[in-house]
Amino acid sequence: MKRILIVFFAAIGFAACQQNQKQMQHSNPFLADYTTPYQIPPFESIEPGDYLPAFEQGMKEQMAEIDQITASTEPATFENTIQALEVSGQLLSKVSSVFYNLNSSLTSDTMQALARTLSPLMSKHNDDIALNAALFARIKTVYDHRNELGLNGEETMLLEKTYKRFVRGGALLNAQEQDKLRKINEELSILSLSFGENVLAETNNFKLFITDSSQLAGLPSSLRSASAEAAAKEGKQGQWLFTLHNPSIFPFLQFADDRSLREQMFKAYSNRGNHDDERDNKKIIARTAKLRYERAKLLGYASHADFILEQNMASNPQTVRDFLMGLMKPAIAKAQKEATALQEMVRHEGKNFKLEAWDWWYYTEKLRKARYDLDEELMRPYFRLENVRDGVFKTASNLYGLQFVKRDDLPKYHPDVEVYEVKEADNSHVGILYMDFFPRSSKRGGAWMSSFRKVSNVNGQHIAPIITTNFNFTAPTGDKPALLSWDETTTLFHEFGHALHGLLGSTTYNSLSGTAVPRDFVELPSQVMENWAPEPEVLAYYAFHYQTGEVIPDSLIEKMKASSTFNQGFATTEYLAAALLDLDWHTLAKDEMLDVDAFEKESRARSGINPEIISRYKSTYFSHIFSGGYSAGYYSYMWAEVLDSDAFMAFKETNLFDPETAQSFRANILSKGGTDDPMKLWLAFRGRPAAMEPLLEKRGLN
Predict the structure, then answer these.
(1) How many beta carbons lie within 10 A of that of residue 205, not counting itself?
(2) Which of 53, 305, 386, 492 could join 586 via S-S bond, C-beta 3.0 to 4.6 A?
């Protein structure tokens, strides 16, 4: 026994020695220059233990840079104060961009624990900068003399935005008020994190296993195959698994004949975060709304919406409400006609139940087929993911002369990810584009664009962008490739529009580049791209049958065109109800914890939305506004749709790929980022204010 113990402890000692040696050999990749091509983050070399030390060192370095600015005995100038602040914190930016992107697309218990640790640290760090009196004094000096400095347009914008950021960050508050603001910001950062974690957990945890094949009636074979594969991965051979991830739930709601199962799936989806358990989001929402109001009041604003909208094109809550309600009236009228037609279809089947929210997708699909002989599921074979992706690339190439070269040799953070080098027509390097297509339990829902690095050109040093796009598309199953729905197809065009905004910036300063624009302007580049997707000339690039190679037939294109305004009453009202719910939460002028369910019920009543339709997002899973950057800004998708509909008309008035119009859009919108007022950028492109008519026509609301 003694000999065994000696050997056992010797083995432990040897293993510990090996571990220590491994740790000594591993160097933190964030703390040195990347040696990868284009200085892409070396994802394979990054270990979870690298993040916190890099964050701590990054914060330390940036504070040292701030101290250097404030300790200067030289008079404050644009260069030694504003620009010096702009370029500070390079290490912190480097590690932050990787960590926060991967916490969205490749999270884990370790990453989430790190995020909770980092949240108060980063909140304090940001407040230490925003509330640094000596730093603000230098910024204010430069700002007060801005008209004497001979600054160019971008420099002037950087100065103005920096000054306003500090004022909005509490620089003019007294010490007691600043201390209160710090506590509010810290708590809000933690609440936002918890909200997002709860939504992800709620989405992942619901699993509907079906053992009786008769309950699959109506479901297309592609969904059956995908659900069988999903069940097999869970060790449930011979069963079918359905989840709340978009590629599972929405086709289920569209096609499942079993009404009780549709109801079960729908209620599971619409009640996420609302079960009075450890993942319930109601207290988080009420506390978030209360704190946001407190912060707005502290800073001198009537509400959080007033605080946010001050920097947007809409400028104030009443403008937003008038805009949304102006669209709601015709949308409700159209939705009522749609509901009547769907209820008639229920009766036609010999059933006597009242149409409910979980019936809408199912009977809409039936009505679409009856009216237009259009079956969305039969469209999928023409929208193979790889073909749609290449069609998007060709559209961008025809518009802007860009090339997209797949690079299998570059680092990536997950095997499913594709990496492309983006080049100009003359082969000069533009940037790197990541595309992450499929859902997984470690990835949040929805679709989004972000960046691992933004473009900048300070002191003649050009930094090329590294952009990432993320999706939750229908994955390949068995011998079938990934075949997209029409909604997924337009989503790919949408996020690619954001990517172009990030890739094609020609700004000097990082903080003004790409998508660093007001929230109600940022969706213009993304949404305008969607307009090319259904054009016959563009469909010919990418819509061909994955088995036969047959280009999508003209007859099917005509059916798509004829049905383009079909169900737009529903689509518009469910969106508007969510935008109004967002606005209601953030125009609160009450310093109290509210009953979330009661508040949402009141908001719904005010919106006037049809009883058979629920808001696109209910409060408890409204991640855009409670864990994303869209608080008091969800309206911006529709606001930007007015712009994108009119912008696309500029191409339709000439031709889809008119070089002069494309060059104007690139020069005046895509390349400018946030270097000028959005209205000035719009007028430089279009020559007049945006008209509402193209939007109303596109949605069939005129």
Answers:
(1) 13
(2) 305
560, two tokens = 């798509």
What single-letter DSSP state applies at residue 480?
B
- Average of pLDDT values for 84-97? 98
One-letter amino acid of 462: H
Amino acid identity of residue 304, one-letter, is: H
Distance CA 519, CA 631 (A): 10
Tokens found for residue 527? 């949404």
Torsion of CA 114, 117, 119, 124, to 10 degrees: -140
d(CA 363, CA 642): 30
- Write out the DSSP string of 435-478: EE-S--TTS-SS-EEEEEE--EEETTEEE--EEEEE--PPPPBT
Tell which residue, 252, 275, 244, has the closest CA to residue 358. 252
- Tell me the pLDDT tens digit for each residue of 308-346: 999 999 999 999 999 999 999 999 999 999 999 999 999
Type of residue at 559: K
Name the residues annotated as catalytic: 495
What 3-state class would DSSP assign to 434? strand
**pLDDT, position 25:** 67
What per-residue string of b and e applies to 318-354 under the rule 16 or more CB within 10 Å gives b?
eebbebbeebbebbbebbeebbeebbebbeeeeeeee
Q: Does residue 8 carry a pLDDT above 90?
A: no
What domains lie within the chain, and their CATH numbers? 37-172 (1.20.1050.40), 206-268 (no CATH), 282-374+569-626 (1.10.1370.10), 381-562+636-699 (1.10.1370.40)
Q: Which amino acid is at 220?
A: P
User: Which residue has tokens 């059956």?
Assistant: 224
How many Å apart are CA 113 and CA 86, to the nearest integer? Answer: 30
Torsion of CA 87, 422, 408, 418, to 10 degrees: 90
| The two structure tokens encoding residue 57 | 């060192």
**Which DSSP string corresponds to 112-153?**
HHHHHHHHHHHHHHHHHHHT-HHHHHHHHHHHHTGGGTT--H
Two structure tokens written together for 264:
């079960």
As a 3-state breakdown, the chain gives helix, strand, coil percent values, each rounded to 5, of: 60, 5, 30
Tell me the H-state helices in 622-692.
Answer: 623-626, 636-652, 659-665, 678-686
CA 124 to chain centre: 26
